[in-house]
Structures are given as structure tokens and as C-alpha cells.
């Protein structure tokens, strides 16, 4: 198995803390270490540095190397430009194929997710490795839930294919795009309903076969690169797009499996999820320079610890002050912070 930590975005929903020159996955958001370092350390409980790969871009690779110096130079997979998750995933497969690893399963490890306990995470990786060597299937992750989670896609699991004693890996009966709250409430009542939670796993050969079948405009430039063409020129030919351009066909044609994730899965993607994680781990405590009268569930993050902040009678607020920018947001609206950043860029305020 080849674990690939994928870290190429900018974390726009965590602006203004996360910036283009210091994206969230390289920041110490949940303690003294970055999300990138924490994910690397989790993988190191089983894998050597030589077995771990990193998918990133040319703007961020030096940050990654400074934080984790043990990973060999040749294990960094660099996007020449950002073209969304579909081309990035295809490049991972092509890169490994070109290195002679076409039949070795790989798993994508999202850098902005924390998993607990680590030993369950590692067991899941190894059990997926066993299945990926036998099945020409696209393996993805799923999480059971008893309450509606909005803004995510869902899967309905079917027959179990993994052996006794291993984690649950199942056929995918149905993939459901993100729906309204009422539809989601009904959906989770169905037996086998899971939140779609990534963790893509398969061999490079199998993924490239699927690209050839369903997305030749991605497949052909990637194979040109495999056969010796310059990556930058070939990558620029690939139209940007999500991996769903492939997976929606894969699900429809019974070519997918889902592993029910056997660990706590925490996506540190917004200030709301960051706040909840910090509270869960006992890591959030308002400092003495923050006065909060008759308020509840407020989150305040300051770069200047000498600044005094007073809140009176307000609840569920996110307040982030980085000195050059101030964000004030309803905790239930933190998924829209990236919209505010778009407006900042539109006005050319130079705070990205």
C-alpha cells in the first residue's frame, strides 16, 4: 500500500488565518503541530518515510519539505498548476505508474482530516490493501450517522465483501448527491446509509483504466506524460474538474466499494469544525483578555494576545483577528467564509 497525503488547496473557509502563502494544513491549528505533520506521524506508526508520498503543488512543496524532512525528494508529486481534484488524482496514478508501481494499491489521505484512533486508521488502510489487490474496483470511504449532515454526499452500502475480522468493506448500492435537509432526514433512515468520506483506494492501473473509459481527455495527457512527454504541457491540456466526473460513472456501473471508516473522522474545514474539535480535545479556552458576558458557544482567535475583546449577550459567533483582517461570522454560516474571500479578491484588497 502507498499512502499519499494530498495537500494542495488554500483552505479558503479558514480565511483569514489560512492564506495562499500559509495554507491551513501547514499551520498549528490544533496544538503545536500542523495538520500535515499530524497526518504524517499517524502514517509513520506503520509506514517508513520512503513508503509515504505527498501530492501538492510547486507553491507549497517547500513548506512541506521544511515540516517533514524525512520524505525523499522523489516521493513528492507536484501539480504544475491547480486543476481541481480530478486531474490531481489522475496525476497521482500516472506518477506511480511511471515509477513501476502500477499494480500497487494507493490510498489518498486528505490532509485536513484527523482520524482517531490511529491504529484503527492503519488497520483500515491494510484491509483496503487486501481488497484492492483482488478487486478491480474504486474504493471510497463512508461514515454512519444518526442525524442529517448537510452539504455532503451519501452512499447506500450493500453486500459485504471483506472477510471476517477485517473492517467492513461493502458494495455500493447507490450514490446520492447532496440533498435538501428534508430529503437527507429521510435518507438516513434507510438501512446502510453512509456519509461519503473520500479515502480513495485502488491501484494506479485500475484508476487509469477508468479514466480511459470515462474521461479520455484526462487519460490521454496523463499517458503521454507516462510515456515521456513533459508534464507541464500535458497537464495544461486536462480540463479542470472534480473526481466525481469519473466516480458518478463508476457508481452507476457497479465498479465501486465503500469502506465503513472504523474511527472518528474530523474534517478541519471550517472554523465551526475547528472549534468543535478543540472543545472535544479540551484545547479551547478563552484567554483572560477575552471578556464574554452572557454568551455561549463563541470562538475567538487573536494574533495579538494584548488586544482586549469584549462580547456581550451574543451566541455562536466566530471572531478571528489576524491584525490585517477581522472576520466576524455566525458559527452556522462558516461554510460561506470563502464567499467573503471572493469578495475581498474582487475588490483587490490584497489580503489573500
Automatic annotation (TrEMBL):
<dbReference type="Pfam" id="PF22640">
    <property type="entry name" value="ManC_GMP_beta-helix"/>
</dbReference>
<dbReference type="InterPro" id="IPR029044">
    <property type="entry name" value="Nucleotide-diphossugar_trans"/>
</dbReference>
<feature type="domain" description="Nucleotidyl transferase">
    <location>
        <begin position="3"/>
        <end position="116"/>
    </location>
</feature>
<dbReference type="GO" id="GO:0009298">
    <property type="term" value="P:GDP-mannose biosynthetic process"/>
</dbReference>
<dbReference type="GO" id="GO:0004475">
    <property type="term" value="F:mannose-1-phosphate guanylyltransferase (GTP) activity"/>
</dbReference>
<protein>
    <submittedName>
        <fullName>Uncharacterized protein</fullName>
    </submittedName>
</protein>
<dbReference type="InterPro" id="IPR054566">
    <property type="entry name" value="ManC/GMP-like_b-helix"/>
</dbReference>
<dbReference type="Pfam" id="PF00483">
    <property type="entry name" value="NTP_transferase"/>
</dbReference>
<dbReference type="InterPro" id="IPR051161">
    <property type="entry name" value="Mannose-6P_isomerase_type2"/>
</dbReference>
<feature type="domain" description="MannoseP isomerase/GMP-like beta-helix">
    <location>
        <begin position="288"/>
        <end position="343"/>
    </location>
</feature>
<dbReference type="InterPro" id="IPR005835">
    <property type="entry name" value="NTP_transferase_dom"/>
</dbReference>
